[in-house]
UniProtKB/TrEMBL annotation:
GO terms for molecular function: 6-phospho-beta-glucosidase activity. GO terms for cellular component: cytosol. This is 6-phospho-beta-glucosidase. It comes from Candidatus Galacturonatibacter soehngenii. Transmembrane segments: none annotated. The lineage of its organism: Bacteria, Bacillati, Bacillota, Clostridia, Lachnospirales. PROSITE patterns: GLYCOSYL_HYDROL_F1_1 (PS00572), GLYCOSYL_HYDROL_F1_2 (PS00653). Its EC number is 3.2.1.86. Belongs to the glycosyl hydrolase 1 family. The active site is at E375 (nucleophile). It is an enzyme of class 3 (hydrolase).
Amino acid sequence: MSVKKFPEGFLWGGATAANQCEGAYLEGGRGLANVDVIPAGKDRFPVALGQLKMLECDNEHYYPGHEAIDMYHHYKEDIALFAEMGFKCYRLSIAWSRIFPNGDDKSPNEEGLQFYDNLFDECLKYGIEPLVTICHFDVPMNLIKTIGSWKSRKMIDHYVRYCETIFTRYQNKVKYWLTFNEINMLLHLPFMGAGILFEEGENQEEVKYQAAHHELVASALATKIGHEINPEFKIGCMLAAGNTYANTCAPEDVWKSIQKDRENYFFIDVQSRGEYPNYAKKMFEKNGLNIKMEKEDEEILKKYTVDFISFSYYSSRLTSADPQVNSQTEGNVFATLRNPYLKASEWGWQIDPLGLRITMNSLYDRYQKPLFIVENGLGAVDIPDEEGKINDAYRIEYLKAHIKAMKDAVNEDGVELMGYTPWGCIDLVSASTGEMKKRYGFIYVDKDNEGNGSLKRSKKASFDWYKKVIESNGECL
């Protein structure tokens, strides 16, 4: 009998994003970004969708990302805790506007560059490999105001310059890179995902897919430049994943589920296979979407594909071809029917560990490239007991079931998996709701939804559990 194991050198760790944990939003020369003006509360979704225009902060709203958990001033303490858990890898993002405050500055901001130098040095001191997301929903505000963000082809040059700067600076400190976080989120939350605002009368679908084209070309050029600067770099793409199930075995429902999955595969089909799939070309044609492309784009996309496929997985989805049934979808970022066979989290996210194995197999069959799970986790309300301890057995149960499914995909199905970095390894601001009480971490941060709290860090029960998982390379769950 073969023992179920993860490969030697498997990259266990955790994941965060600058705009949800760093804070210090105007310190160290950092410029304003789209993520800084997305408030908590009822206006969060309209702003994130690009429907309510907000380009400055005001006094009427609370902006949770401004301080977040202030990792900017606590990173040494936080990385020491990650090291104590035994992290082999830490996924983080660089805040674009910390490096180029306006996006089009003549030279980069040295204070911002130095901050990440210090942060990477701290990781490497403990033998933790940084996995860096180049653009995790960050767009310098100046580029939104002056050129309309990714609506404009000029964004490609600004992004490429940013990539050249950080690839050169950190070429001996960072090996693993992701070009864009959840690139498909551009279709679902255009302002949060890509700084896109819609003007009256614009064809919104055309705007989104034109912006997507610019991001796809930019991603390919980043892959090209990265490999030129350091051939050892491993550069990946990243999608918000989760297979869509058919509500019934009616062929119409099955066909609808395939179409839903294609919406998400579209980006990765281009980034991994190097060309626009025929179903996308037909969709553009059918809907009269005129996507402007330059002569050289086809060759750029073809030549510079990614080295690996990374993805977030929280839940599977469910769809029906029947408009009446489909109108009952849950109101999350990815609308989905309620699956009667699954339990759900407090925020209505359906818990489906087998769905992770299904998703891994779908992606690996489709692309035959190594996979990396860079987000997975349970957002829950954690309440400290009288002694201030948090027994988050529900989180351990969730992660245990997903790691088992991951192990099956590797051992039973032969899926190639590089690593696993569960989301929000330390509590941070929720991207979808702007809340602090929707916690994911192994480490509790004393802060509430209104921004009150000491920011004190403390270990949850899941901290010691995950430490054992890493120590045993996934044997001891």
